[in-house]
Design brief:
Two copies of one chain form a homodimer. Chain A is of the alpha/beta class. Helix content of chain A is 43%, strand content 15%. Chains A and B meet through helix 4, helix 5, strand 2, helix 6 and helix 11 of A and helix 4, helix 5, strand 2, helix 6 and helix 11 of B. The structure holds a DNA duplex (30 and 30 nucleotides). Chains A, B: One of its GO terms (molecular function) is DNA-binding transcription factor activity. Chains A, B: It comes from Devosia nanyangense. Chains A, B: This is LacI family DNA-binding transcriptional regulator.
DNA sequence: CAAAACTTGTAGAACGATATACGTAGAACG
DNA sequence: CGTTCTACGTATATCGTTCTACAAGTTTTG
């Protein structure tokens, strides 16, 4: 008598016995591999669903794919990432892939640790939003597994794909909009980073901002501030900025999240928006639409970004090794926070 | 000549050779297992760091632990979950465990699929926030792997741990606070669920609300509404509610997130807060502090909840099988949205 | 001082998939 | 009709750990 399975687990072997075929055949069906007839395929499929078989991801990870994708975000508080994530899920809905999230808290060290953890867990690919790592580290990661970056402007020769909106254009749209509405002392409130890189979206936005200011003849009013790590510190910077002698009459914030803080400080200081101060954000998140914010913002369609990123990643896992870079055109959504001035 | 390792990967075998000990010994060091001398331990540790060895999680998953915990949240938009997550990370900082997130979008089907995926991937344990599954499904999951629930009031005989705040008390605090401030027509805006269970936090809050209303002699003013799935639909409900003949003079929302929508609708309708309408939320998230919201809320210290959940989960993985239930006392944080009425 | 108990280490069988190498038909070809 | 293809299946080594069973050495016990 053959040695009977002791464990209760339903493995590929159980399925093979049930269907009366070899283990290898079942594996082929599982992977949609070449060399199985339609008859055998349906027979095996039937056995699998009858037994309620579920492939063991760890075992798969030993040899082949895990069908798990890593998704890394800097922050859980920024609702923009939620939009992107929704797009990713739409793209993967009908596939075998599952996505698991990591949150880096905008810290390079945590980001690297999470990526290591995901590589250890044999994820098939990685989507990283706004990476904080040095470019060379990104290249190293991409050499180890298929990688798509969102919100990172790659330099030529990159071995990964990117998905972006045109950040320079977005910033230009903001400045043009504000200038047309009668504002001139337009400041840019940037993200705090220890060492800015050319690849960062915020760098591009700053470049776009500076260029558009010059083009509008407002070059002498260029002012760039940095938001700090915590909410409290950022409010301090903004308060200082709004109480200074040459207070700006408009603030362009690198992301909506920060713009909400600006709105708060302005109100605390008794400044009316947009009467005394116009505020514009970036990402057009759900909070912009709330009447108490009514925040003008740049829409870069997070859903589309996520969807494209997932598509590119799956392509790359399937073998493509030519880098692709997807870019969407940003669009300004005007709301009350930047209404035209009444002179 | 012995067969040389072909692959470049640094495995437990490489370490064993380098340190001049057996594979089993290295494994013991790795797992802090019994039966290794201090000398051997340090020797192996040295080899590991010299070679830059990293354990292969998939291989671990075949036999032992994966040192990966699953963390399931209903929603990425609600910043309260971010606080909880931060607490979890603090608790796990100095351990080997890594946390990976899943987002169920408040849908039972996605929630179940994610849990299956996490079980397939051999996660060592699960933390689920505000589960939407039926109680019996929860029990089945908990039977398969160590489980801690946050925001779920277990019935006696549960085989999982829970971490909660006292939701009934929280709701009572709100009603007492509003009543003392001179409001009487206090409505409760609840979460939409297909079938409410006794285990849900929102059910407890509703019970607390009803009880406190009666205790305050306001029983005849009890009104419960349901927020719907999307932001737009919820705003519709609120608008209808605020334009009805017997409009409430205060609204208690089951979570801050919804309260912000109420503030928005009130403003659109030209109602002043708190002059015409007081608004109170739950969770005391970061958005409450923004001046444009100034939202009174119940603080249930998300950080503490997350920290305790992680602690309980690790204990359970280590073998405890007696259920434990941790409860924190909620605290009301008063802000301008519920200032006392001037008669 | 022999027997028992403990300590420290090793060998090697799992775990559940994947994928290579190969076997066996039947079809197509000259 | 023998040879070469093609299509379909199978047997089995392999991945990197964990962990049981056991061996050898050391200390304690009676």
């Amino acid at each position: 008598m053959a040695p009977v399975k002791k464990s209760g687990r339903i493995t590929i072997r159980t399925v093979a016995e049930d269907a009366g075929v070899s283990v290898a055949a079942v594996s082929k069906v599982l992977r949609d591999a070449y060399g199985v007839s339609e008859a055998l395929r349906t027979k095996v499929r039937a056995s699998m669903s009858r037994l309620g078989y579920r492939p063991h991801a760890a075992a798969r990870g030993m040899r082949g794919q895990t069908y798990t994708l890593g998704f890394l975000i800097p922050d859980m508080r920024n609702p923009f990432f939620s939009d992107i994530f929704a797009g990713v899920n739409v793209a993967l809905e009908r596939t075998q892939y599952q996505t698991l999230l990591g949150v880096s808290e905008s810290a390079t060290s945590i980001e690297m640790a999470l990526i290591e953890a995901m590589i250890d867990r044999q994820m098939d690919g990685l989507i990283v939003i706004g990476p904080r790592m040095m470019s060379q580290d990104v290249m190293q990661v991409a050499a180890r597994l298929p990688t798509v970056l969102i919100g990172h402007h790659a330099t030529p020769g990159a071995n990964f794909d990117t998905v972006n909106n045109d950040d320079r254009l977005g910033a230009e749209l903001v400045v043009q909009h504000l200038a047309a509405a009668g504002y001139s002392h337009i400041a840019y409130l940037n993200q705090q980073v220890t060492d800015a890189e050319q690849t960062m979206v915020t760098t591009h936005r700053e470049i776009g901002y500076r260029q558009a200011m010059k083009d509008a003849g407002l070059g002498k009013h260029i002012q760039v501030f940095q938001a700090l790590q915590t909410s409290r510190e950022t409010q301090g910077v903004v308060r200082h900025m709004l109480q200074s002698r040459n207070r700006p009459d408009a603030i362009f914030c690198w992301t909506d999240f920060i713009a909400l803080e600006v709105l708060s400080v302005a109100r605390e200081l008794g400044l009316s928006v947009p009467g005394d101060l116009a505020v514009v954000g970036y990402d057009n998140t759900a909070y912009c639409d709330l009447a108490q914010n009514a925040l003008t913002s740049i829409d870069q369609s997070g859903q589309v970004l996520g969807l494209q990123a997932a598509r590119l990643l799956v392509e790359r896992i399937k073998g493509r090794d030519q880098a692709e870079h997807f870019v969407v055109t940003p669009r300004l959504v005007a709301r009350a926070s930047s209404s035209p001035r009444r002179p």
